[in-house]
Here is the input.
Amino acid sequence: KQEVTQIPAALSVPEGENLVLNCSFTDSAIYNLQWFRQDPGKGLTSLLLIQSSQREQTSGRLNASLDKSSGRSTLYIAASQPGDSATYLCAPGEGNTPLVFGKGTRLSVIA
Amino acid sequence: DAGITQSPRYKITETGRQVTLMCHQTWSHSYMFWYRQDLGHGLRLIYYSAAADITDKGEVPDGYVVSRSKTENFPLTLESATRSQTSVYFCASRVEGANVLTFGAGSRLTVL
Here is the structure.
C-alpha cells in the first residue's frame, strides 16, 4: 500500500524567499506524481504533473523534481509571495489506481 | 457551466439521518472519486468509479453507499449519519489513462 509523507507539515517564510517542499513515497513503481495546491475552504487545484520518465517539470516560479528510485519529489517555489500561502499536497500516481495523498505542507508567506 | 460541481456545499444533519451528497461533472470523464478530508488524516478515498455502473471501495467505505447510473453523476449517500462522518467531502474526476485529477469545491458536512 502506497504511503506518502510530506515534510515539513507547516512552514512560514518571509516574502521573497526561495523554498523547498518535500514529498516521499514508499512504492516507487509509479507512473507519475502530481502536486496540488489547496486554499482554505477550497478544493484542490493541480499545479504540476511529472511523468516517471521526467526528472523535472516547471510552471512559472514552480519547479517540481522527481527521483522515482529513491521515492522522493520536491516542489521548489522561487521568490515566494503572500499569494503562495496555501497547503501543498503531493500524490504519486500508479496507472488507473486512485491517487493516495500526503497530508500536505501548510505554507505561510509573510509580507 | 463546465466543470465539476458538488451540492450541497454545506449541510448540517442529525445522527441517524440519511444524507446524499451530489457530484456532477460536465466532461464525460470516465473516473470519478469521493474523498473525505479530516485534520490529522488528510485526504482519504471513500469510493471510486471507473465508469457507469462500476464502483469500487476505497480506504474508508464503511457507512457510505454510492451509485453511478449516469457517467456524469456520482452521488454519495450516508445511510445513517454518525458524528464521525463530520468532514469535508471532495468529489474528483479524471479521464481514463490520465492522472490529472480535477476536484470539486467540496461539501462540508456536520453531523450533530
User: Anything to note?
Assistant: The interface with chain B takes residues 31-32, 34, 36, 41-46, 49, 89, 91, 93, 96, 98-104 of chain A (CB under 8 Å). The radius of gyration of chain A is 13 Å.
